[in-house]
Design brief:
about 400 residues
């Protein structure tokens, strides 16, 4: 078989469709985020402003987080030494799981190496343990949830995004005695909209279904202690499983689930994606622990971030740009064409020192390509105005007019 030609054709196809991804070579400035240096075509590093980081609150740069990681590195070294059951279970891991369980009002929590692994591993494991289980999944769920549902081997029912009537119809059509699990997100990261959590819990109660809520784009960001949308709305007690990440608002790395003790124990005991992988470095866990503890007590970062996002939305709307109707901290600007999205992104970086990655298929459906801005508490009013002015200037160019311009 001509392996090389097959692979070459696959890459060429991505280029032709405008979906080939380029990873920009950057270095952040410790303590000065969102400032960074871009080493793409410039070994010396050109100053840029980052507008697409999922470190939503800049906690990856927070002095408490950095100090905790430096202390852990000095005291215990770099790596964990193995899987959790073979030398890789440190006191840092135990302490962080206790903090996360408390954050979500649950009896227990379990750490994974990423949010993707947490979703894929937990959903596939639970599905395999429940004979005849039917999983109901929102059509816009993250790829990791889709992979977990597929890996479970369960029957699946896809409901239209946030469509309660469609979900109810699918639940009603399923065998009454079949185990059921509804998997959905709180904040959908590419649209910036929010799930009707209470209403989904009502349906789950009515049809005796478990609920699995992905809060990765909401933990740290919402609620009086940063427990997510379910925390903000006082609904944590109604959810069977809450899944989150340590790599976005908490600024470090890792994923987790929180739930009752038996459920967490069964995942811990049966999930290959947990059992057979080296645990997170205690250095990372120490940083995440400091971040979670800080954001449980501090609302300053959340308040500043929301103000920045509101300001950017207002200025982009006044300038005539087509924003998706986000009600959250995410600001998605619709472009609708992959080549054009990449062209605009390249122009922002090359001409203005503004870094935002284009979001193309398969992350979003074809025809809905976009630029996804994630304003943070450290983006200044001057940065916001510079971004909007740059987009207005690019819109005026014939080479890449913005289709969403008024």
């Amino acid at each position: 078989m001509p392996y090389e030609s097959v692979f070459t054709s696959a890459i060429e196809r991505l280029h032709a469709e405008g979906g080939y991804r380029v990873f920009v070579d950057i270095l952040r400035h410790r303590g000065a985020f969102p400032h960074a240096r871009c080493l793409q075509h410039d070994p010396a590093g050109r100053p840029i402003v980052v507008w697409c980081s999922n470190d939503y609150l800049g906690m990856g740069q927070h002095p408490k987080v950095i100090a905790a990681m430096e202390e852990a590195l000095r005291h215990v070294g770099a790596g964990s030494g193995g899987t959790r059951n073979i030398g890789g279970n440190t006191h840092y891991h135990v302490a962080l799981e206790a903090e996360l369980a408390d954050l979500h009002g649950k009896a227990a929590a379990l750490l994974f190496t990423s949010g993707y692994v947490a979703n894929e591993t937990t959903l596939s494991t639970l599905g395999k343990l429940l004979p005849g289980c039917v999983i109901f999944s929102d059509e816009l769920n993250h790829a990791s949830m889709i992979a977990g549902v597929k890996g479970s081997g369960c029957e699946k029912r896809i409901f239209r995004h946030n469509d309660l009537a469609h979900l109810e119809a699918l639940l009603a059509a399923a065998p009454a005695n079949a185990p059921k699990l509804i998997a959905f997100e709180s904040v959908y990261s590419m649209e910036g909209d929010v799930a009707p959590i209470a209403e989904i819990c009502d349906l789950a109660d009515r049809h005796n279904a478990m609920t699995y809520l992905d809060e990765v784009h909401a933990v740290g960001m919402y609620g009086p202690r940063g427990g997510g949308i379910s925390d903000r709305e006082g609904l944590t007690h109604r959810l069977t499983i809450i899944e989150g990440t340590l790599g976005k608002a908490f600024g470090v790395m890792g994923g987790y689930i929180a739930g009752d003790a038996l459920l967490v124990d069964v995942v811990r005991s049966y999930a290959p994606g947990f059992i057979f992988t080296t645990s997170l470095s205690p250095v990372l866990v120490a940083g995440a622990l400091a971040s979670v503890r800080h954001l449980k007590k501090s609302d300053a970062e959340r308040t500043a971030q929301q103000a920045t996002a509101a300001k950017l939305k207002t200025l982009l709307t006044k300038a005539g740009f087509d924003l998706l109707p986000s009600t959250t901290h995410i600001v998605p600007l619709l472009v609708g064409d992959p080549v054009k999205a990449k062209t605009i992104s390249d122009a922002l970086l090359a001409d203005y020192g503004i870094y935002v990655q284009p979001i193309n298929y398969p992350t979003v459906p074809r025809g809905t390509e976009r630029l996804r801005f994630t304003p943070g508490p450290h983006h200044t009013e001057e940065m916001i105005e510079a971004l909007v002015d740059a987009l207005v200037e690019i819109r005026s160019r014939e080479v890449a007019p913005l289709a969403m311009a008024a």
